[in-house]
């Protein structure tokens, strides 16, 4: 009762293939592989070096057009009743 033997895993694999089909499983594998590759490529800088941790911190606030001032406000939803 401890672990699963190789026969248990083969039966599980057979059931999964019967439920989803080989074409669907192949498409899922390709999509997952493409996502992992895209993630790895996205984590690299244009020079091909990995991005150091903390390098994606937001830049310091600049004075810009607002002169570094914070604009505070409140958003309210206007409800109207139709008669």
List strands and helices in order, with pairings.
Blueprint: H1 6-20, H2 22-42
Sheet-strand content, in percent, reads under 5%
* Record field, number of beta strands: 0
**Can you give the helix content as a percent range?**
40-55%
Let me know the average pLDDT: 79
Q: How many helical elements?
A: 2
Low-confidence stretches: none
Shape: flat
Helix-strand topology string: HH
Largest sheet: none
N-end to C-end Cα span: 70 Å
Question: What is Rg?
Answer: 27 Å
Secondary-structure content class: mainly alpha
How would you characterize this protein structure?
The protein is built from 2 helices and no strands. It has helices spanning 6-20, 22-42.
From the structure above, extract its key features:
mainly alpha, 2 helices, flat
Q: Short description, anyone?
A:
With 83 residues, this protein is an all-alpha fold. Helix content is 43%, strand content 0%.
């Amino acid at each position: 009762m401890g672990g699963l033997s190789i026969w248990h895993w083969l039966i599980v694999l057979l059931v999964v293939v019967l439920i989803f089909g080989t074409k669907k499983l192949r498409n899922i594998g390709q999509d997952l592989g493409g996502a992992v590759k895209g993630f790895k490529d996205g984590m690299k800088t244009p020079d091909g070096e990995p991005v150091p941790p903390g390098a994606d911190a937001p830049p310091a606030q600049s004075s810009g057009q607002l002169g570094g001032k914070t604009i505070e406000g409140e958003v309210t939803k206007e409800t109207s009743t139709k008669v």
